[in-house]
């Protein structure tokens, strides 16, 4: 149970605290191994087929490396010192989740917008999105933040949470024999997601070497993206009850049913469609990436203009979703204590 307790503690810590940049970070180490392998393999394999093979090797090696290191921490460090193992595992879970950091970065954009500083808001936005930001206006910047927070709810919160929870349930069913899965599964997920973030682009440079990472990321995010959407709908349902405006919920459901597959990604549109319905607006649309215009259909039917305060609203919604996930964890923990 101590592994599960470390998971829950790390999850709660991320609710209150963002990442401390001066401390070593799991994702930075993963990123370094991805960059190093990419640099070496690009020199070794220059053809299109060679780059496809290189991308496959990058994925396999990184999954094996970081999956094994997570297993090593869970098995061997606990044998050296139980308290040390718990502290390290809790800290790793804290770094795996990204809600507080995402809120911090999105609020940097919010604060710049509030002061009317469009250059600073564009610069702050560029830190959390992949698109070009230098020509965006105030409303486009606000929409980009809303889209990013909605999409990253799945990548940065629900997906690692779901895989850690899955590892917990598997351990429970098999008499706690696979406790190491509680950490190993979310670390492997984080590795795949980081590879997609770094090399999973459709640009000329990455179209071949990043294909395996992009496809695998689509697969591992399939369930988390949909679970995220239903969690958001659950939260929005209660918001609509509290506000006595049930149309908020119905618009969210309608937008989800109609637009969840509009996005080029099979997963990103799941949460964005719900949020487009919630704000009764249009999200997404055409955008520039690396100086090239990428044509995209809009998500949502609404004509409401978003405003700066909606950045706070979307962060509050995701925090409420965070509480829902924590309640699920506490229920699972209670069941486990009862059974054991």
Key traits:
single chain; 3% strand; mainly alpha; 13 helices; 73% helix; two-stranded antiparallel sheet; 4 strands; 340 residues
Give the secondary structure arrangement, pairings included.
Elements (H helix, E strand, L loop, with lengths): L1 H15 L9 H19 L3 H33 L1 H15 L2 H16 L3 H9 L11 H36 L7 H19 L11 H10 L1 H22 L3 H13 L8 H12 L3 E2 L2 E3 L2 E3 L3 E2 L10 H30 L1
Antiparallel strand pairs: 1-4, 2-3
Helix pairs in contact: 1-4, 1-13, 2-3, 2-8, 3-4, 3-8, 5-6, 5-7, 5-13, 6-7, 7-8, 7-10, 7-12, 7-13, 8-9, 10-11, 10-12, 10-13, 11-12
Could you characterize what this model shows?
There is one protein chain. With 340 residues, the protein is an all-alpha fold. It has one domain. The protein contains 13 helices and four strands. The protein has helices spanning 2-16, 26-44, 48-80, 82-96, 99-114, 118-126, 138-173, 181-199, 211-220, 222-243, 247-259, 268-279, 310-339; strands spanning 283-284, 287-289, 292-294, 298-299. The strands form two sheets. Strands 1-4 form a two-stranded antiparallel sheet. Strand 2 and strand 3 form a beta hairpin. Helix 3 (48-80) runs antiparallel to helix 4 (82-96) and helix 7 (138-173) packs across helix 12 (268-279). The longest helix has 36 residues, at 138-173. The relative contact order is 0.13. Pathway: Cofactor biosynthesis; adenosylcobalamin biosynthesis. It comes from Lachnoanaerobaculum umeaense. This is Cobalamin biosynthesis protein CobD. Belongs to the CobD/CbiB family. It is a multi-pass membrane protein.
């Amino acid at each position: 149970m101590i592994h599960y307790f470390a998971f829950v503690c790390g999850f709660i810590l991320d609710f209150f605290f963002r990442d401390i940049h001066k401390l070593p970070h799991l994702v930075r180490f993963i990123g370094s191994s991805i960059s190093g392998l990419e640099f070496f393999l690009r020199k070794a394999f220059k053809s299109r087929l060679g780059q496809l093979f290189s991308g496959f090797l990058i994925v396999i090696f990184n999954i094996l490396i970081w999956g094994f290191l997570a297993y090593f921490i869970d098995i061997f460090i606990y044998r050296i010192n139980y308290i040390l193992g718990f502290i390290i595992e809790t800290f790793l879970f804290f770094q795996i989740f990204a809600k507080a950091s995402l809120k911090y970065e999105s609020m940097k954009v919010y604060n710049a917008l509030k002061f009317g500083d469009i250059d600073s808001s564009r610069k702050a936005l560029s830190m959390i999105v992949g698109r070009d930001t230098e020509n965006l206006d105030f409303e486009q910047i606000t929409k980009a933040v809303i889209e990013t927070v909605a999409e990253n709810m799945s990548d940065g919160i629900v997906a690692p949470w779901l895989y850690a929870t899955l590892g917990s349930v598997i351990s429970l069913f098999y008499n706690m024999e696979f406790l190491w899965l509680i950490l190993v599964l979310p670390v492997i997920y984080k590795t795949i997601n980081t590879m997609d973030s770094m090399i999973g682009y459709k640009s000329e440079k990455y179209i071949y070497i990043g294909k395996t990472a992009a496809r695998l990321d689509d697969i591992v995010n399939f369930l988390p993206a949909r679970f995220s959407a239903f969690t958001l709908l659950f939260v929005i349902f209660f918001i609509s009850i509290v506000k006595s405006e049930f149309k908020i919920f119905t618009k969210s459901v309608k937008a989800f049913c109609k637009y969840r597959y509009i996005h080029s990604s099979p997963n990103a549109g799941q949460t964005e469609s719900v949020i487009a319905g919630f704000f009764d607006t249009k999200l997404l649309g055409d955008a520039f990436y690396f100086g090239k215009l990428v044509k995209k259909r809009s998500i949502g039917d609404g004509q409401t203009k978003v405003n700066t305060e909606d950045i706070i609203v979307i962060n509050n919604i995701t925090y409420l979703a965070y509480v829902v996930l924590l309640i699920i964890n506490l229920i699972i923990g209670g069941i486990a204590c009862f059974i054991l």
